[in-house]
């Protein structure tokens, strides 16, 4: 295994997982064995994410030390995220109108999944409103936010703390050195944890195939196909154009991130790739200050894959129940999705909750989401991978916009990857 690259090891784990899941479909004993193995890997990942985000942000912000520069970066970043996610939502709506994935479906042949926990979250979040969600970004107790994994609150605190460390000058040096040490240690831990990735992937994919079976895709195959093709179109055409405008190539980016994309696809977890994504973008020539701010923020504000899924899923439900939405109603749907997707940032199962909240506000039947629940994991796998590409590209765009992108470093890094692939 040592001679094989991480991507190859993960792919082998994926293949074995699918085979075991298919052979032991519905076998509770096998599922009971696979479940803890997959959970261990996800727990290991979650264990290292928060310390990396906190230390990386504090180190990068303290390094910038200029509140005006940070404010400019923050403003540009949010503007870019808003434009790209709106395009993603529009592409999703266009695809649903072109292919009509929900038309002609016999609901009697579909299995219903349990969506009660998502409905509860949807009602709670909807009742608090967007304004309350903005207030929630500011933590009352940072230790509670760290415990709960509230990424937006953690980012807010870390940015302010980093500015504080920069503001006190020499007195802040020991604090900065401490967090630099923490960051280096956490990256070492990340490399260690990733050695377990092939086994985690094997267990997670095996568990899902054993639980739902390959046959679960057939009744909703058209929806899966439309969402997958739309996301692939978005990555290669929309993000491809943005990459070209930024002076890079989306194919080069995908090649650099191949390990992370396979990992994101198989685990359906953005957290699984966050530490390595930040490192790779820094190696590719993005300044630490930009990477450490843009990528963690992107995981709450720039979810392109999730946006496409939300738009198609909402129209799929309408089509499935034979409800025709006019052009004006679809524009309203787009605006509602724009607001709800930002309001749900950091909520568990955010994409699912966003669609439920949107359906409720548009007067569409919530029960329709129960039919998608069974295959949501399969949809989540690709939307997570698209989110990874979108956030990596955002780091490059922001680095170039700020005039801090290192072209020589990027060329050296891509050359080294090319040589290792040949070897």
UniProtKB/TrEMBL annotation:
<keyword id="KW-0813">Transport</keyword>
<protein>
    <submittedName>
        <fullName>Proton glutamate symport protein</fullName>
    </submittedName>
</protein>
<keyword id="KW-0472">Membrane</keyword>
<feature type="transmembrane region" description="Helical">
    <location>
        <begin position="77"/>
        <end position="99"/>
    </location>
</feature>
<dbReference type="InterPro" id="IPR001991">
    <property type="entry name" value="Na-dicarboxylate_symporter"/>
</dbReference>
<feature type="transmembrane region" description="Helical">
    <location>
        <begin position="40"/>
        <end position="65"/>
    </location>
</feature>
<keyword id="KW-0769">Symport</keyword>
<feature type="transmembrane region" description="Helical">
    <location>
        <begin position="224"/>
        <end position="243"/>
    </location>
</feature>
<keyword id="KW-1003">Cell membrane</keyword>
<dbReference type="GO" id="GO:0006835">
    <property type="term" value="P:dicarboxylic acid transport"/>
</dbReference>
<dbReference type="GO" id="GO:0005886">
    <property type="term" value="C:plasma membrane"/>
</dbReference>
<dbReference type="Pfam" id="PF00375">
    <property type="entry name" value="SDF"/>
</dbReference>
<keyword id="KW-1133">Transmembrane helix</keyword>
<keyword id="KW-0812">Transmembrane</keyword>
<feature type="transmembrane region" description="Helical">
    <location>
        <begin position="196"/>
        <end position="218"/>
    </location>
</feature>
<feature type="transmembrane region" description="Helical">
    <location>
        <begin position="151"/>
        <end position="169"/>
    </location>
</feature>
<dbReference type="GO" id="GO:0015293">
    <property type="term" value="F:symporter activity"/>
</dbReference>
<dbReference type="InterPro" id="IPR036458">
    <property type="entry name" value="Na:dicarbo_symporter_sf"/>
</dbReference>
<dbReference type="InterPro" id="IPR018107">
    <property type="entry name" value="Na-dicarboxylate_symporter_CS"/>
</dbReference>
<feature type="transmembrane region" description="Helical">
    <location>
        <begin position="308"/>
        <end position="328"/>
    </location>
</feature>
């Amino acid at each position: 295994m040592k001679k094989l690259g991480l991507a190859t090891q993960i792919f082998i784990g994926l293949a074995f997982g699918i085979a075991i899941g298919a052979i032991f479909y519905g076998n509770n004993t096998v599922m009971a064995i696979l479940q803890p193995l997959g959970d261990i890997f996800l727990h290991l990942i979650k264990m290292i994410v928060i310390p990396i985000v906190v230390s990386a942000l504090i180190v990068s912000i303290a390094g910038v030390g200029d509140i005006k520069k940070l404010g400019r970066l923050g403003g540009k970043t949010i503007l870019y995220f808003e434009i790209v996610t709106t395009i993603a939502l529009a592409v999703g709506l266009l695809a649903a109108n072109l292919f009509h994935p929900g038309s002609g479906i016999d609901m009697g042949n579909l299995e219903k999944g349990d969506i009660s926990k998502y409905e509860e979250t949807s009602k709670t979040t909807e009742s608090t409103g967007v304004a309350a969600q903005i207030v929630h970004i500011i933590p009352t107790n940072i230790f509670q936010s760290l415990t709960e994994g509230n990424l937006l609150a953690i980012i807010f605190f870390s940015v302010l703390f980093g500015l504080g460390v920069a503001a006190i000058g020499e007195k802040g040096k020991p604090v900065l050195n401490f967090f630099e040490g923490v960051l280096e240690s956490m990256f070492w831990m990340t490399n260690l944890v990733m050695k377990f990735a092939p086994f985690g992937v094997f267990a997670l994919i095996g568990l899902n195939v054993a639980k739902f079976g390959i046959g679960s895709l057939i009744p909703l195959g058209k929806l899966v196909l439309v969402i997958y093709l739309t996301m692939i179109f978005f990555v290669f055409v929309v993000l491809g154009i943005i990459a070209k405008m930024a002076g890079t190539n989306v194919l080069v980016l995908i090649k650099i991130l191949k390990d992370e994309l396979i990992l994101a696809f198989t685990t359906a977890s953005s957290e699984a790739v966050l530490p390595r994504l930040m490192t790779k973008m820094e190696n590719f020539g993005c300044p630490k200050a930009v990477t450490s701010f843009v990528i963690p923020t992107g995981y709450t504000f720039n979810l392109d894959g999730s946006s496409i899924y939300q738009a198609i899923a909402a129209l799929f439900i309408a089509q499935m129940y034979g409800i025709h939405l006019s052009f004006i109603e679809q524009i309203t749907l787009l605006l509602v999705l724009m607001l709800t997707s930002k309001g749900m940032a950091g909520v568990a199962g955010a994409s699912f909750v966003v669609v439920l909240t949107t359906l409720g506000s548009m007067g569409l039947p919530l029960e329709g989401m129960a039919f998608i629940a069974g295959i949501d994991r399969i949809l989540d796998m690709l939307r997570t991978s698209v989110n990874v590409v979108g956030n990596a590209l955002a780091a490059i765009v922001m680095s170039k916009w700020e005039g801090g992108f290192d072209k020589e470093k990027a060329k050296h890094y891509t050359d080294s990857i090319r040589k290792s692939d040949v070897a």
